Amino acid sequence: xxxxxxxxxxxxxxxxxxxxxxxxxxxxxxxxxxxxxxxxxxxxxxxxxxxxxxxxxxxxxxxxxxxxxxxxxxxxxxxxxxxxxxxxxxxxxxxxxxxxxxxxxxxxxxxxxxxxxxxxxxxxxxxxxxxxxxxxxxxxxxxxxxxxxxxxxxxxxxx
Length: 159
Prior knowledge:
The protein is of the alpha+beta class. Helix content is 21%, strand content 30%. The chain starts with 11 loop residues before the first strand and ends in a 13-residue tail after the last strand. The mean pLDDT is 89.
C-alpha cells in the first residue's frame, strides 16, 4: 500500500531473520528488537515502543488502517466537496476540513465517513479532530462516534 520510514534510537538494535525455505509463499521474515542495557529504564521503555512502532509500520504498509465515523443526530451529515470534507453539524455554517496527505476519505452514506491510510497515528488523529466538533453526549445519545464506540445513556432530571 505504501512506504514508511522510522527513526530508531541508537541503543536499539534490529536483527533480521530470514526464513530457511524462501520458496514457500508463506515464508515469514522476522525482526527481533534488542537493547544495549536492560537495566536502564529509558532503554527498556523504548524497547517495547520500538517494537510496537515497527509492527504498526508493517501492518500499515501491508494492510492499512481505517477508522469509521458515525454521525448520530438530526441533520448531522458529511460530504466531500472539492477534495475537502464538509460537515453539517447543526451550526449556522458547515465545517470545512482539509484532508491530510496520505489519507483517503470516503463518504459512502451521509452519516458515515471512512478514513484509510498507512499511518495509524494520522488516521486516528484526523478521526479525533472530526469528533471534536460534536463529541457524543450521554443524555440524548447524539454526536460523532468513532468505530464501534458506545456510551451509556444517563437519566435526565427526576422530580
